[in-house]
């Protein structure tokens, strides 16, 4: 849906000197969401509190996770995706990446190249390690969402290389050690559920054949049997059954919903942990479309454990990309009315993906403008030499940094108000796609629980605060 040339995510990264020289990445549309038009604001009072609070008990915090004391003080998920790790996504890496010197464009083609197995093991061992878990916990992240491909559990009839399940296992150990929770995300389904590279295989959408749906369920059975066991109940909070299945391109939404029901039944049957969430991406259908199935699945249990994953981006569709900072903030705040369900709904919702990066840029007088892809050096709206007003990450135009922080806070305040919480995409990546860069350059090291702009949505005209 979005051509690679229109992808401007790197954009804001260019504010940082360290990124200014990076060659344009080969962007693929990461998240093809239909444009939604302008949100409307106002008139809808949204009392706080939707769904059940996520149980975070301090007893869960392991003894050497001392830095993570704040995770016991929020009942909301403050999470980060570990994207680009167990499923390769070329656009997320530096020039000198695992893909250089190959013609590969996705996991499928990469795994077919000579030497792929050794390179993959090296990537798994170095891209994210224990030090990252220590950093995440200290920064205030309470959860990680870990994308993994089905092929880690069954690669029959494909070039896919197995072995990622052992890395997932290691990651779960680190999460436990640092007092964090894990959502296991089956991000690549047999046949590809969306034909995009982040499913493992770009091209056609062949997920909904009987064989592929059957294999999907088989693999979820394996994952559910293993990670639904009580010995993981202190660390694995849920299993996501499918990521971003397309709606109108090879998939039938009715089949997607039937699959969700079957996957839920399968996992709940094999999982001993009664608190395990079974989560599905909404297939871009919107939360209300899932209410009826949720009512069916959640009515038998004391706390609802069938849950939805929404992905909310403002850097993908043309209308969002054109917004200025006020428009971005207003749209984020309006999500509380447009995307989530009323309080008391028995469908818990997680925001499994969103981003801190948008197309705004700084003028020489430090005002910011929207709608530019911001490819100029240092993210300027006009083509003046970068060093004339921004010379390093630390002196990024204050106006731009503050605007990006307002946008960040508008998003997370909205999510924490209206849902179970959030997972930013992603721990590492170009520019402000990277949670590491967001924390360092935009939050300037502040803990994720810190609010610099309280009431940002009230100021934007949203009545819910
Ligand atoms: C945390 O504790 C585990 C087990 O006691 C130990 O192996 C690990 O090195 C510790 N990590 C840190 C960062 O102290
Ligand atoms: C993790 O990787 C970083 C470099 O990317 C390195 O500095 C650090 O020592 C590694 N941590 C462990 C525990 O190996
Ligand atoms: C893997 O999937 C194939 C195709 O569905 C199936 O025939 C095979 O039995 C599966 N292997 C395992 C170990 O489950
Ligand atoms: C700042 O510069 C922009 C772009 O040149 C201009 O549109 C805006 O009016 C200026 N703002 C002020 C306060 O001068
Ligand atoms: C713009 O911001 C930079 C960095 O914060 C500052 O040094 C500079 O004086 C500002 N320029 C104007 C015109 O306010
Ligand atoms: C916990 O969060 C507060 C702000 O909400 C912050 O001031 C404090 O430093 C944080 N504590 C730790 C250990 O990160």
From TrEMBL:
It is found in: Secreted. GO terms for cellular component: cell surface; extracellular region. It holds the Pfam family Cellulase. Residues 1-22 form the signal peptide. It catalyses: Successive hydrolysis of beta-D-glucose units from the non-reducing ends of (1->3)-beta-D-glucans, releasing alpha-glucose. Keywords: Cell wall biogenesis/degradation, Glycosidase, Hydrolase, Secreted, Signal. Residues 27-46 are annotated as: Disordered. It comes from the Eukaryota. GO terms for biological process: cell wall organization; glucan catabolic process. GO terms for molecular function: glucan exo-1,3-beta-glucosidase activity. Its EC number is 3.2.1.58. Belongs to the glycosyl hydrolase 5 (cellulase A) family. This is glucan 1,3-beta-glucosidase.
